[in-house]
Fold this protein.
Amino acid sequence: FVANGHADAHAAFAQWAAQQTDWLDDYTLFMALETACSGAPWWLWPTPLCTRNAAALTAARSTHADEIGFWSFVQWCFDTQSHALKRYANDRGVAIMGDLPIFIAHHSADCWSRPDLYMLDDAHQPTSVAGCPPDAMALTGQRWGNPLYRWDRMADDEYAWWVARVQRAFTHADILRIDHFRGFAGCWEVPASCPTAREGRWAAGPGKALFDAIESALGKLPIVAEDLGTITPDVTALRDHFGFPGMRIVQEAFGGHEGGHEAAAGTHSFLPHNHVRDCLAYSSTHDSDTAQGWWATASDSTRASASEYLQCTGAAVHWALIRAASQSVACMALFPLQDVLGLDGTHRMNLPGTAQGNWCWRFDWPMLRPDAAARLLRISKASGRAPSG
């Protein structure tokens, strides 16, 4: 690109880079230094670079100018392609839904550039990390390991880091799902020295103040709250105060448990007859098995409950889940492509808590059968989720 790129492209690249300096300068330097340090995490870099000595950073920007330019080019390519895709979709009446994780990685440009915003010790190591408490599904809880925010320091500058993060996310998406929404009301704080999440405790989040700051800066936004797991009244109150719809996963309504506790027959909030308007109804999600994979491994009691409620057999369970989600009062119904195509568990997207084989699945064009498209359209029309014409 440097040698052969068209002058107009060079000008567009330069203009874009000038508009992104608030995050791009730190990110590209971080990536260049990671390369120069053979992939070592930032807290093991030479002390002047680890601690962001101004003279050392200035020298590094000169020494690694070509590598910095490369990473700028990579991000420009991403932005250019992502925005083109979004325009293409929007021009055809299709919205893009994005996903924003609540936490960031310890080894990241965000943490290196503003370590004061995270619970780190003098050696730049987390004192506490993120996770979720033990329940019937995970007896020792889940220890995710992400550094936790210093919400008091973020509040001092009116949550500017979060405002900038959300603003940029909305350049790539029309709707944004915020992962682990309950962490804004209270998160499970695990001492970094503990190997499991069993020893954690609930710690207060920023609550309304964070989203007040975001709305004050950016206006009312189409945000979806991922409110799965252990949901307490303060989480519900925070979600409802801002009018954020939550999530209901129909596939998970038949196992007899909700929030780690036994659910009486017919009471599970994920059952379509218990849905509310301010929610999104899913047949399953990227973290679930496919509908067919779920059915193949479900217990006899789960299958019996689902079969009675959905009035289906295993061969058609994917369509039954899609129809049930579509016919709920939820403001939106969503289905993984694997469910629309009736694919088995070998096509699963993600296995939470594992390090291998995630996010690798891709469809092939021959999979997209006309009969599946036609049936999805019929269900969408019958449930009022598609135009009748």
Notes: The longest strand covers residues 142-147. The chain has a mean pLDDT of 94.
